[in-house]
Amino acid sequence: MKVSVIGTGYVGLISGVGYASQGHDVICVDVLEEKVAKINAGEPPIHEAGLPERLRQVLDKGNFKATTDITDAIENSDICFISVGTPSAADGSIDLKYIEQASKDLGTALKNKDSYFTIVVKSTVTPGTTEGTVIKNVEAASGKKAGQDFGVCMNPEFLREGKAIEDFDNPDRIVIGRLDEKSSEALKALNKAFTCPVLETPLSTAEMIKYVSNAFLAVKISYANEVAEFCKKIGADPYEVFKGVGMDKRINPAFFNSGLGWGGSCFPKDTKEFAAAAKREGANPRIVDAAIETNKILPSKIVELAGDVSGKTVAVLGLAFKAGTDDVRESQAVEVIKLLNEKGAKIQAYDPEASEVEGLEREETMEKALEGAEICLVLTEWPEFENIPFSGKIIDGRNIVENRENYEGLFW
Ligand code: NAD
Ligand code: UGA
User: Which amino acids does the record list as binding NAD(+) (predicted)?
Assistant: First the structure.
């Protein structure tokens, strides 16, 4: 099939390269020329396991390209995914500016297309957005009618950064929100290679499924962290506790790892918007609000454990919001660094992959970060931090360190 993708971030690029590797013709569009040039040169702009190889393979095969020209992409495709960012606005609610722009651009490019076209919203958008923003903008810019000239689906993405290719290849389920039955025909045909269950729903139900999934996972982790704090007080190991808890099939063991909590480009913004949207509708999201609060105080807990750091050299190992990614968006490690700075610590930070953190100088190696340090904080669970060549005190925020002589765990 002929596919286009608007936005070449974690979701757009992985999906584009993924569908191309299944044999479809894919054109990815981005507004950033530099990003497009890198992708076409076979250099992934993000760190993702397996992506360099897969990108090279589809470029060599000739059925994948990136461009800044949306008209070319729409002219040469029958189905288009919108996968631009949906960050938080200053008040915590969703900022739809990229969705607004992308849907206007798509509508304009669709104006001269004669054949039926399918638009798929893949970005995480608050319930009502596909109908109220995307359809409205595309209709206004194209002069065409949804359901008649073009179909509309909302197809939430569940991939994890660091495991994005693995998750694209092996989804647990595919959720297809659709405007009408015809709207989902092309998307179902495109997804024929997958064997997982496919759930078709109204558009706003699909939008809701994505928020509820992320909010539930965040709640699970915050619950694990509350339990872990309690466990430490009675001398129980929270990892052992949750091993036992997770053996219940109704509960399942995933996402109970306690520690510094959740960050990244998704859980923080999606929980905030879930809570804000619920309140806008007059509902009361007490549990999600509490999960957000529990998560917010975790950086200060690890800094408290470090004691008086004023004038001391502190080695910080890990900046990415989790291992396996270069992403530092809303990383808990960045919050810890802010607090350490406020307390007058001299920070020597190292991360094997993390992208730049504003205002922070970085060491080239773990050994350099440890040189002359009095204390070491471990903030991301990179495997290379299992054994840290350091004789000073180690405080582990992620339960990753194996050498535990002069050691304290955040909650264990
Ligand atoms: P990202 O910020 O990494 O990438 C978005 C890309 O869209 C950028 O390259 C940007 O330049 C481009 N863009 C913005 N406006 C554009 C326009 N008008 N035309 C063309 N390109 C444009 O975002 P991401 O992390 O890939 O997330 C995208 C969406 O998917 C978000 O809604 C996010 O919540 C959701 N999501 C993300 C993940 C993840 O793991 N990152 C997983 C599931 C869902
Ligand atoms: C998460 C979801 O897992 C994906 O299903 C979803 O598609 C994505 O958000 C999204 O909507 O963008 P991601 O943010 O890549 O994926 O990372 P996770 O592996 O979920 O981790 C999120 C955060 O929770 C990390 O900071 C991680 O360290 C933390 N975490 C995770 C824990 O503290 N404990 C756990 O047990 C698991």
Answer: 30, 35, 86, 124, 161, 269, 329
Which ligand 1 atom is at minimum distance from the Cα of 45? 9
Please check whether residue 213 lies inside any domain of the structure. Answer: no
C-alpha dist (Å) from residue 112 to 71, 74, 108, 121: 10, 10, 8, 21
Does the residue 225 lie in any domain?
no
Strand order in the sheet with 375-378: 346-350, 313-317, 375-378, 393-396, 407-409
Query: Residue 151 belongs to what domain range?
Result: 2-201
Question: How high is the pLDDT of residue 119?
Answer: 99
Domain membership flag for residue 195: yes
Report the residue among 11, 217, 380 best suited for mutation to probe ligand 2: largest number of ligand atoms under 8 A from its CB: 217
Q: Please tell me whether the overall predicted TM-score, pTM, comes out greater than 0.90 for this model.
A: yes
Burial track 340-351 (b if 16+ CB lie within 10 A, e otherwise): beebebebbbbb
Active site residues per annotation: 266
Question: What does the alpha-carbon distance between residue 167 and residue 116 come to, in Å, rounded to a whole number?
Answer: 30
Residues 293 and 154 in one domain: no
Instruction: Specify the CATH number for the domain of residue 94.
Output: 3.40.50.720
267 within 8 A of 217, measured Cβ to Cβ: yes
pLDDT digits (tens, 9 = 90+) for 306-346: 999 999 999 999 999 999 999 999 999 999 999 999 999 99
E-strand stretches of 231-390: 313-317, 346-350, 375-378
pLDDT tens column, 380-403: 999 999 999 999 999 999 999 999
Report d(CA 107, CA 245) in Å as an integer: 50
